[in-house]
Design a protein that fits this description.
This protein is an alpha+beta fold and 405 residues long. It has one domain. 44% of the residues lie in helices and 14% in strands. It is built from 16 helices and eleven strands. It has helices spanning 4-13, 15-37, 44-51, 53-56, 64-68, 82-93, 145-148, 158-180, 211-231, 246-254, 265-269, 331-335, 339-352, 358-367, 371-387, 396-404, and strands at 60-61, 72-73, 98-106, 117-126, 135-143, 193-196, 235-239, 287-288, 291-292, 311-316, 325-330. It has a nine-stranded mixed sheet with strand order 1-9-10-11-7-6-3-4-5, sandwiched between helices. The protein has a two-stranded antiparallel sheet with strand order 2-8. α3 packs across α10 (246-254) and α6 (82-93) packs across α13. It is globular, with a radius of gyration of 23 Å.
């Protein structure tokens, strides 16, 4: 049990530590935010060249910076009520198919005599037609002991195996949607948008025990990106609160006088700039220009044959006062001139979902497995084992604790 008075007492002892850290960080992010705004008037090519982005494998702005004349694009729509916002959102989504997949898992525990786990991935597809016939689908998969125990040598734990399988199944569901939507242009439909509730990038791991782990994650994402490009269906890797430092690293490389900072991009984009009353992303719906994403330790599958990055991102302000969401987007979407339309689809989904894409929220609700579901799963497995004369049993103490909690 957590005791509120003890928590408050412990926090009071570290109050000055928090205050000192906040004062230091406020100055750092404010300066970085000012330098980001100072990119106005520069071209993407200038920033790329002068920062040394290519040899250093740093993120760099796209040619959207040239046309916009600034690193941030304000959202031009203005509403007087949530009803007006919803009308705009429904129009932005009308006859546009959106899709999301999300999963949950049951991890193996010591209460079972043999390790067994499960993953459930749900998908939500909405064509946004007058008929309103959205569809939900659920895929449930049991992970038997032999698949879990590969974690003893390749992975750090069986939980990593479960997390990886869930990730692969979610990516597969998104790929299947994109293949179904292939040819949407021939039917003169609006561009479909698939949501992936995760980043579209993974960095290379250095530990020997994690090599296969990284490769399988990267392979799932590479398939996702390839399918998106081949089908012409945009996929958005939605990260609600990103700690990525890509913009920070670019600014430090471009402005040689900047000291190293521990700030991350989302903080910079919401920091107050000296002499102004607003941060770079000042209001709901504002976004950055599209940035091509590179990192020194990014896996090779995220670059094309010529070495150009396959993935970029924009930051989009989806709440009135919180940090922006990061949208990882395949580079071909920018090249096809679809970034703003995709951003509008995300904005509209967030209006309907009250700050979070409704499609992801619906998929998450369908996929969720609670503690009670876990208890039921173990009981079903125990009955299955008894029927087939398998040596499997669950601790009565554990089941009792599950009922009480």
């Amino acid at each position: 049990m957590l005791y509120r008075t003890h928590v408050i007492s412990a926090l009071e002892k570290t109050r000055e530590d928090f205050a000192r850290f906040e004062r230091s960080l406020r100055g750092e992010v404010g300066e970085l935010a000012a330098r980001l705004l100072a990119l106005a008037g520069r071209t993407g090519e200038e920033v790329r060249r002068e920062s040394g982005a290519v040899p250093q494998r740093l993120t760099y702005p796209s040619d959207e910076l040239d046309g916009a004349g600034a690193a941030v694009l304000p959202f031009r729509e203005a509403w007087r009520s949530h009803e007006e916002a919803r009308r705009w959102a429904l129009e932005a989504l009308r006859n546009r198919v959106t899709f999301a997949a999300d999963g949950s898992q049951i991890f193996p525990g010591r209460e079972a005599s043999l390790p067994v786990a499960a993953v459930q991935v749900a998908s939500f597809e909405n064509p946004h037609t007058p008929e309103g016939r959205y569809t939900k689908d659920v895929h449930f998969e049991v992970i038997p002991p032999d698949r879990l125990r590969e974690g003893e040598r390749t992975f750090e734990s069986p939980e990593q195996v479960v997390g990886l399988i869930r990730f692969e199944l979610e990516a597969r569901a998104v790929c299947e949607f994109m293949r179904r939507q292939r040819g949407w242009r021939a039917h003169t439909r609006r561009v479909p948008v698939a949501f992936f509730d995760n980043t579209l990038l993974i960095s290379s791991r250095r530990k020997n025990t994690e090599i296969l782990f990284s490769k399988r994650y990267a392979a799932a994402l590479a398939e996702l990106l390839l399918t998106s490009r081949e089908t012409g269906v945009p996929v958005v890797g939605y990260v609600d609160h990103s700690y990525a430092p890509d913009l920070r690293d670019l600014l430090e490389a471009f402005y040689k006088d900047l000291p190293e900072s521990n700030a991350y991009d989302a903080q910079i984009l919401r920091a107050r700039v000296r002499g102004t009353a607003a941060p770079p992303l000042a209001k709901w719906g504002d976004r950055t220009v599209f940035f091509h994403c590179q990192r020194p330790n990014l896996a090779e599958v995220f670059f094309d044959e010529g070495g150009a990055p396959l993935v970029g991102f924009v930051y989009l302000q989806t709440t009135s006062d919180g940090h922006p969401a990061r949208l990882d987007i395949p580079a071909w979407v920018h090249e096809a001139g679809l970034i703003e339309e995709v951003a509008d689809a995300v904005r509209a989904e967030c209006v309907v979902g009250n700050g979070y894409p409704y499609a992801i929220e619906a998929a998450d609700q369908a996929a969720l497995m609670t503690g009670r579901d876990r208890e039921q799963f173990l009981r079903v497995v125990q009955d299955f084992a008894a029927e087939h004369r398998l040596d499997f049993h669950v601790s009565h103490k554990a089941l009792s604790k599950g009922r009480r909690r």
